[in-house]
Amino acid sequence: MEKLPKVGLPILIGIVLLIIIIAKSAVTIDSGEAGVLFKTFGEGVVIDEPPLGEGFHIVAPWNKVFVYEVRRQEIFEKMKVLSSNGLDIQLDASIWYQPDESQLGLLHKEIGDNYLNRIILPTIRSAARSVVGRYTPEQLYSSKRDAIQEEIFEETKKIVDGQFIMIDEILVRDVTLPPTIKDAIERKLKQEQESLEYEFRLVTADKEAQRQIIEAQGKADANKILSASLNDKILQDKGIEATIKLSESPNSKVIVIGSGKSGMPIILGNQ
Questions:
Q1: HSE of 160, CA atoms in CB hemisphere, 13 A
Q2: Where are the transmembrane segments (predicted)?
Q3: What is the pLDDT of residue 90?
């Protein structure tokens, strides 16, 4: 009985050491993450192998694993930039980004896990200053928001693409102008709208007047043609035709021949 503790102690110590080693060697990569392996007694950051994927991994206790989120992420940024005429503009934007998982080792080796502040934000600020500086406040306020959004995205992507990072989208959420400039632009837009409305009314009235003139001219021409085509002979023939039709009617009547104007008959009925 006295020998059991002496035999069990080394085993117990071994089990404890094994648990410690396993605990220090075990790495769990959560969903949406990937790990970069750093070999302390080797080549350092492993760049010629795929990063560690999701799940449980055992690595040597003297090595390290740097975990990165590889899902799409979003960051909101407020930027102070200048328009083409030197006025302060506040631009509210959001950036959708993620690291290039296939290049995660190179990203860690050359830039590090703080790539958002080292690469993405300085680049988008520079692109925003460059793009917004091409436009006037009025253009930024009214019609060019989609254009500047696309241009900022293209300029940012051009630089970031070579940095093992992917920019999926840049959205311009809001463009804030100085209050006095904003009020002036709104007044100008309102005046332009009223001017366009007035011009539309003038054009409509002019077209209506032209229509009435054309209609009146058409009626005058028709009456002129009709008057020119009517003479006594035609009128007399029409009268005769009407007399014949009336004489054939079953209604009782008296026809006085040659008593009307120009010798036309006068018809007297009992109605």
A1: 31
A2: 7-27
A3: 86
pTM of the model: 0.61
Q: Are residues 105 and 158 in the same domain?
A: yes
Of 149, 171, 170, 168, nearest to 97 by C-alpha is 168
User: 């940024």: which residue's tokens?
Assistant: 77
Residue 80 and residue 137 in one domain: yes
- SS3 of 53, please? coil
Same domain assignment for residues 190 and 170 = no
Strand segments, DSSP code E, in the chain are 26-29, 33-39, 44-45, 55-58, 64-69, 73-82, 88-99, 165-176, 253-256, 266-269
In this prediction, residue 114 carries a pLDDT of 93
Number of independent structural domains in the chain: 4
Q: Which of 75, 64, 74 is nearest to 35 (CA)?
A: 64
Looking up residue 152, the CATH number of its domain turns out to be 3.30.479.30
Q: CB-based contacts of 101: which residues, under 8 Å, 6+ apart?
A: 34, 51, 70
| Shared domain check, 114 and 87 | yes
Alpha carbon distances (Å) from 204 to 208, 211, 250? 6, 11, 56
Domain that holds residue 221: 180-229
Shared-domain flag, residues 122 and 187: no
Same domain, 96 and 162: yes
Q: How confident is the model at residue 4 (pLDDT cuts 50, 70, 90)?
A: very low
Strand (E) or helix (H) holding 47: none
For the stretch 56-110, pLDDT in tens is 888 888 889 999 999 999 999 999 888 888 888 888 999 999 999 999 999 999 9
